[in-house]
Amino acid sequence: MEDNKRYESGIHVMEELFSEEVRNGMAGMKNISPDFWEMIVSFGFGDLYGRNTLSHAQREVITLTTLITQGAFDQLKVHLRAALNVGLSKEEIIELIMHCAGYVGFPKAVQAMGIAGEIFKETEVTK
Amino acid sequence: MEDNKRYESGIHVMEELFSEEVRNGMAGMKNISPDFWEMIVSFGFGDLYGRNTLSHAQREVITLTTLITQGAFDQLKVHLRAALNVGLSKEEIIELIMHCAGYVGFPKAVQAMGIAGEIFKETEVTK
Amino acid sequence: MEDNKRYESGIHVMEELFSEEVRNGMAGMKNISPDFWEMIVSFGFGDLYGRNTLSHAQREVITLTTLITQGAFDQLKVHLRAALNVGLSKEEIIELIMHCAGYVGFPKAVQAMGIAGEIFKETEVTK
Amino acid sequence: MEDNKRYESGIHVMEELFSEEVRNGMAGMKNISPDFWEMIVSFGFGDLYGRNTLSHAQREVITLTTLITQGAFDQLKVHLRAALNVGLSKEEIIELIMHCAGYVGFPKAVQAMGIAGEIFKETEVTK
Amino acid sequence: MEDNKRYESGIHVMEELFSEEVRNGMAGMKNISPDFWEMIVSFGFGDLYGRNTLSHAQREVITLTTLITQGAFDQLKVHLRAALNVGLSKEEIIELIMHCAGYVGFPKAVQAMGIAGEIFKETEVTK
Amino acid sequence: MEDNKRYESGIHVMEELFSEEVRNGMAGMKNISPDFWEMIVSFGFGDLYGRNTLSHAQREVITLTTLITQGAFDQLKVHLRAALNVGLSKEEIIELIMHCAGYVGFPKAVQAMGIAGEIFKETEVTK
């Protein structure tokens, strides 16, 4: 595959995961490093999310879990919205976080659940 | 629920996840701390895996992801076998690890893939 | 023990650790997931802090140390207040953070000490 | 070497790394724990940065990398400014963060790049 | 304090924490880097363990907790022996690890408990 | 750039970093997942190490630092050899690890230094 196609595939994935507003925010990265932006789109979304075998929803389960484990809570907000966009239910997300409590400890799970609560409220308001 | 039932529920889950050999190995914990053994069974398996909303296979996706992210590779071996037992395919596990490469970095993903390769080979032999 | 008693034991522990204001803040979790709230109280406080062998003050030494090591600084604030409530002195907390500097590195220790400074000031004002 | 000299050496290093404003902010630590402040200066800067074999710029490459890997983003801000002060270029810092993407995963690299963008903008304004 | 005294203080602390066999093993570091060996002794043991306010036993509680949280299991073995040497009981160590289960997750706690079991057995044999 | 070229660029970088023996070991990954092998070569080595602005030696400083911080000690062995291959001296590597002691804590630095000692001895023998 040419780099061109990898980038296009990544942009396509991002449209499925994120709202236009979120994508515009992300694209601010272009001003800091156009090369890094290209890498995020082509590799992070094109090469990884663009693959088969796992659905976008299954990939978000993996992404949410690793972000909670790493304590990467700013990124968690973005991917909680993506998870809802690709069809995970609130109940499944809550259950995922509870499962994490036993595996990464309560401090990170509690923080994740608090953030999930905010995102859930926000999505209700915009409905 | 009485503690008795939580423990029984945990034992039941463990029978679904692990072979008898693995369970016997785990039960060695009883000799070090019977209370901790009880907690692992009742909370770790009874309270968490025993819940609804997510299937055992979905829970193993979460467990594998957090173990890779933490670099907990000894535990990963046990849960790779459990993942296969509850119906995840080799292709899905490989795909999960590749997805992790972008989110936790290649060093841990490479190590996880090497371990997965060993477990896959082992399960072929025992067939 | 019945679940009922585990929950009651957890609530009792929380009254010893946290001010009413902090407990009310924590209870907001009920609105996001009543099951997770139940788990936090029954397991996190009832099953763990409710055990013998170690005092609440000794348990807070463990909790503070793991939170600093994980970089879980939001949770650290809550448990610094709890540590003071169950009898750890400011001098002991400062000493704990200095010890951590050698074991988890200065970046996390410096951040923890800054937060401890804020909590110490806050508790002086309320006196 | 006497402790006196270790402290003086540390203060000297800090003058090379940080602006007066940043150093004054750091010195607030004296009010929380004078002993910890002494340890930061004498050990963290005197004993470590004061050594030979690696330049200050090379040491900042190490420091930035470990801070990104740990997710210690508050400390990262301080050391991004120090890195620029001791001669690392923006291009080198961007390249370092991109390299980290493959080794610690994109979530932390993306967050680090966003912070670097802010620091770069800030240093342009003050020129 | 002169560096000489910091080193002597560190050696003195190490004699209280570790058996002669363990100390001889550690001293192999001198062959790789005499400067790093000096830093371990003077800073790691002299400056940190040599301070007041917390007892050696309390410091080992902190050290064990951070090692479990970091997954630094090779170092954990050494400090489990040290913890027993300075007066922590097996019951207290088991309780510490159980407390960690809730705060760092079961995978690391389970691994730590297994290692503690080995160390306990080993110390019984040498009695 | 076509994928073909990214892969070739990655293979070229790997020849500069690793001995033939190490590369053959790595290529075992092809048997587990040919796609992951392609990703490691094309992205991990082609896209990242193949870029300009930082030399291979500077990139190994970053790689060693993040591996020590993550506690990824199996990967550390491979990259310590690579670091020596691309021109870092033993003195620089020792200094890097000592610097890390202050930033990630002594446990991981001590373990890294022990491993470095083994690799240094091994390279002396093969001379």
TrEMBL record, chains A, B, C, D, E, F:
Coiled coil: none annotated. Residues 34-116 form the Carboxymuconolactone decarboxylase-like domain. InterPro entries: 4CMD/NDH-1_regulator (IPR052512), AhpD-like (IPR029032), CMD-like (IPR003779). It comes from the Bacteria. This is Carboxymuconolactone decarboxylase family protein. It comes from Psychrobacillus mangrovi.
